[in-house]
Amino acid sequence: MKKLKMGIVGLGRLGKKHAENIAFRVPNAELTAVCSIKQEEVDEAQEDWGIKYAYTNFEEMLKNKEIEAIFVASSSTEHCNQIEKALEAGFDVFSEKPLGITKEEVTYISDVINKHNDKKFMLGFMRRFDPSYIDAKKKIDMGQIGKPIFIRCYSIDPVSAVQAAIAFAEKSGGLFLDMMIHDFDLARWFLNSEAKTVFAVGDNYIYPEFGRHGDIDNGSAMIEFANGTVASFFAGRTSAHGYHIETEIIGTKGTLRIGNIPEKNLVTIFNENGAVRECHEGFLNRFEDAYLNELQEFINCVLKDRKPPVGAYEGVKATEIAYACKQSFSSKELVMIK
Ligand SMILES: NC(=O)c1ccc[n+]([C@@H]2O[C@H](COP(=O)([O-])OP(=O)(O)OC[C@H]3O[C@@H](n4cnc5c(N)ncnc54)[C@H](O)[C@@H]3O)[C@@H](O)[C@H]2O)c1
Predict the structure, then answer these.
(1) What is the b/e burial string over 173-207, where b = at least 16 CB atoms within 10 angstroms of the residue's CB?
(2) 128-286+318-336: which CATH number, 3.30.360.10, 2.40.170.10, 3.40.720.10, 3.40.640.10?
(3) How is the chain split into domains, by residue range?
């Protein structure tokens, strides 16, 4: 079996998971090289997993022609630059979301990606690869809930992860771009339509620390799509009960919900608090299958010469919505996306 030889940059909270998936969970992949600016992370990966090459400098990794594809899982501020360098060096590229953290950067990198259309590029909107979201999309497209007229999306991180989020805030691009972007992409995907009118609000209700980076701890947006569907989004970082990802679509003939109780597993504890179902602790366990499936899809696209289903265009459109939210949040006015 042909194995795609991959090098990954970024071995942090999510990069380590992607690296493990490449190394151990996808049969037609090989983790040939790892890279992080943190020496201890590359040492640990190399020693624990027996990885052939390890780098603390991304440009050095790109000189290694044994590698066939690059996985970008570094901080969001690095994506645009590293995607460009990897494409210019002749690699196929998978990048975590977001494409970049400014509108200009995203437009620029989208042009670069389109220029390199002989290379595969895929963006990590992994919810499109989650089995429940795939099933929901199929049911909507089959008309099982009629025509969607309202979509409601919650993405709330557990408060147990808030200190990591505060540390990450300087390089995240803010709540609308960092977190809500997943739901903007899902809404576009489910509705087959583009966002038109945006109103966004939010605040630092508990953690003023986010304010130092112009960010907020909880926010929401109301968006009208071009086909008339209304969408309501809530994203936050202070969920007491766990990682709460929930999506509801109301149609003319029925309603569909994904993850309305974010249950971790089938265990129920009966105690002085009643019948207790624990919730997902974070993205790593809720989207475990999705991370694996998106990686497998990218590798299949490279090996079978297929166009990846999620690319620069999806990144640009979701970023446009995030920036309209940022603008509306600052101006407290309705923003039209042209
Ligand atoms: N799809 C999702 O569900 C999801 C969830 C979490 C994070 N993310 C995205 O994944 C990316 C990584 O997030 P994280 O939480 O793992 O961040 P993190 O801060 O934990 O890790 C960042 C990693 O990148 C490395 N790095 C930073 N700059 C570098 C450079 N110039 N060269 C080499 N290595 C560099 C760091 O050393 C570290 O290993 C972010 O863009 C984030 O938005 C996506």
Answers:
(1) bbbbbbbbbbbbbbbbbbbebebbbbbbebebeeb
(2) 3.30.360.10
(3) 4-126+289-311, 128-286+318-336
Instruction: Show the CA angle centred on residue 313, arms to residues 96 and 137, nearest 5°.
Output: 80
What's the topology of domain 4-126+289-311? Rossmann fold (3.40.50)
pLDDT of the chain, 338 residues: tens digit per residue: 899 999 999 999 999 999 999 999 999 999 999 999 999 999 999 999 999 999 999 999 999 999 999 999 999 999 999 999 999 999 999 999 999 999 999 999 999 999 999 999 999 999 999 999 999 999 999 999 999 999 999 999 999 999 999 999 998 999 999 999 999 999 999 999 999 999 999 999 999 999 999 999 999 999 999 999 999 999 999 999 999 999 999 999 999 999 988 999 999 999 999 999 999 999 999 999 999 999 999 999 999 999 999 999 999 999 999 999 999 999 999 999 98
Distance between the two ends of the chain, CA-based, in angstroms?
A: 48
What angle do the packed helices 180-191 and 312-331 form, to 10 degrees? 120
Name the residue with tokens 């919650």. 154
Question: 262: how many CB neighbours lie within 10 A of its CB?
Answer: 21
Q: How far is the CA of 10 from the centre of ligand 1 (A)?
A: 5
**34 alpha carbon to ligand 1 midpoint, in Å?**
13
pTM as predicted:
0.96
Residue 7 in contact with ligand 1 by CB distance below 6 A: no
Ligand 1 pocket mutation pick from 74, 128, 288, 291 by most atoms within 8 angstroms of CB: 74
